Request: fold
Amino acid sequence: MTQETVKHCKSKAFYDEFFRKGEGDKQTHYCPGCGHGIVHKLIAEATSDLGVNDRVVFCSPVGCSVFAYYYFDYGNIQCAHGRAPAVATGIRRVLDDSIVIVYQGDGDLAGIGMGAIMHAANRGENMSVFFVNNAIYGMTGGQMAPTTLIGQRTMTSPSGRSLGNEGFPIGMCELMDALKTPVYVERVSLGDAGRVLKARTAIRKAVKYQNERRGFTFVEILSPCPVNWKMQPEESRRWLMENMEPVFPVKQFRDRAAEAEPRAARGDEELSDSELLELFSSEGDANFHTDRTGLSDPPDQLVKIAGFGGQGVMSAGILLANCAVCEGLNATWIPSYGAEMRGGTANASVIVSASPIGNPVVSEPNVLIAMNLPSLKTFEQSVLPSGMILVNSSLVDSKVGRGDVRAFYIPATEIANKLGSVATANVIAMAAYACLSGAVSPETLKQVIPLSIKKKNLIEVNLAAVDEGVKYYKENMAGR
Ligand SMILES: Cc1ncc(C[n+]2csc(CCOP(=O)(O)OP(=O)(O)O)c2C)c(N)n1
Ligand code: SF4
Reply:
């Protein structure tokens, strides 16, 4: 009788070697007896066996598994605490072929990230979530988590979690099961070898269903944290089975994969550029492109438009971005609001470029449009040398202090008042900027305004504001 050889080998999803800084550079960073390592292994085996390793984007949490990227030969994104499901949503929707793995602890998922996970589940995002529940905040030294058991002692519940003060531990699978959308929800345990095998099956299913585009899958894994539970590894396994499992029943809550229609590939739902513009404009008919034939591409415009709330800096930014898109350029716009609803400071960052834009953040603008004094003071020093600063001189009585930038002044609020609508100061400044920079043409501004402005009775005055801005440019700035 020949004896079958059992060969244990490293999953292809793991790096051949991992390097950590300092002492212990060849050991994993997990404590002896920790469950994270086992979960890593089960995930690695699942993706390897399904042949999807090169498509995996692993969304790491903040928690002990923050360093997951040391071990996996996957794409990895380190997500802000609790936000992995939101990050994963973005990845999954943009990289249609990706396999997105969300890996979170109980503090991360059920504490700070409760909103993100519930909404991702409710939307039915096609992703696999692995929720490692060790009933405590491991990384930060053992504080109480949403899943800490009644009576369990932690750093922040030294006399034990109390029902009266902190309520019951939260059952995440039970919450998932209350939603209509998730396709697969199961709770497993790492209490002993048999349970680990069941966890293996559950993890495989979750990845497989995602690969088949079935929808949202959620596996909660009850996992020991011997160090913060202040136990030896073996004792922690027993404690897990005897104390955690009665509170968090180990079972399959649902498996609706067979009935779930595979999600459509991304291309089927995509909108065309003109449909997108239509969607974001008030009226609709945005199906035009200004002809840039014969015009050279403008240099990249990194624009900061700043003023107080109510001055229309956000809408000026949107206007500029829409104009750029209509001219066949690329554009991004991101708002930044002060805490006040009105009267506070606000600024919009806009990038206009003939090339694809990788990062919409404008920390060093080459154009600053300062609609009030605090904006000039805040952003003047951030402008790149040789950049441009356009100041609303109606509200800013000081001059630009820097000698290495081009400074222009326009009494935008005064001109707007003469037109009968102070709210058009933003458009007047924008028209002057368009002339100064050549980034977009004033004609495009006039085409986009009727689409951007919701109140129809304000269209005429805003079109007149473009003319006024151009006029002021010609009379006072041209040729400088
Ligand atoms: C915004 C923010 N708040 C708080 C923290 C501190 N913090 C780091 S990890 C963590 C909790 C980790 O616990 P858990 O998610 O259960 O993972 P574990 O370490 O047990 O695997 C907290 C509160 C942080 N890094 N960022
Ligand atoms: S503190 Fe707990 S969860 Fe973190 S590595 Fe150690 S045993 Fe694992």
Q: What stands out?
A: Residues 194 and 476 are 82 Å apart (CA to CA). Residues 36-255 form a domain with the Rossmann fold fold (CATH 3.40.50.970). The first strand starts at residue 56 and ends at 60. Confidence is low (pLDDT under 50) at residues 282-286.
